Amino acid sequence: MSVEEALEYIKSHPEGALQSDLWKVLKIDSRKCSRIVAKLLKDNIVTRAVESVDGIRTYRLFCSEKSHSRRFDPLLAVDAFEPCAGCIEECIPEHCANLSEWIFSIVMGEDGEISIDKIHLEKSGKS
Ligand code: SF4
Questions:
Q1: Which domain holds residue 116?
Q2: For 11-26, how does the pLDDT look when each residue is reduced to its tens digit (9 = 90+)?
Q3: If we measure between CA atoms, which residue out of 45, 56, 72 comes closest to residue 18?
């Protein structure tokens, strides 16, 4: 059992992972789990809040690392970055190909190209 595995488990629970679950899931004893958590706390990688589960005191652990991909998620459509951020073009949004493309990729989602092909096939009556 490593610190990395514990951190992965905590990261996979954005609502917070209970320390009393962590040592069971990772099949280690609670003392070893406490040492791992102490290291993560010392390195400021996780934070914790006291919680009581069935009358037993434990901690809810939260990952304090900010994921860059999640931070910029509102600006991403599939993997295309929002085109207006940092744009220095003369702006006429109604005629902006970059903006239109970006909005289209939001509407079409991850399988956008497949969907576009389907639309073309349906329009041509080949579906
Ligand atoms: S709409 Fe087009 S031109 Fe205007 S800021 Fe966005 S990307 Fe630039």
A1: 68-124
A2: 999 889 999 999 999 9
A3: 56
